[in-house]
Amino acid sequence: MDVDLERHRRVQALAYRCAEEVAAGLEPGVTEREAARRMRRWLVRNGVDDWFHVPFAWFGDRTAFRGIRLPHQFLPTGRRLEEGMPYVLDAAPIVDGYTADIGYSGCLGENPPWEKLVGDLAAYRTLIVDLVRSRRTFADIYAEVDRRIARDGYENRHRKYPGRVIGHQVGRIDSRLPRNVVLGGAFGLRTLQTIGRDLVKERLEGRSPLWNGGRRSRHAPTPGLWAVEPHLGFRDVGAKFEELLVVTEDDAHWLDDDLPHVRRWAAAEKAAERAADHE
Question: What are the residue boundaries of the Peptidase M24 domain, all occurrences included (predicted)?
Answer without folding.
Answer: 6-249
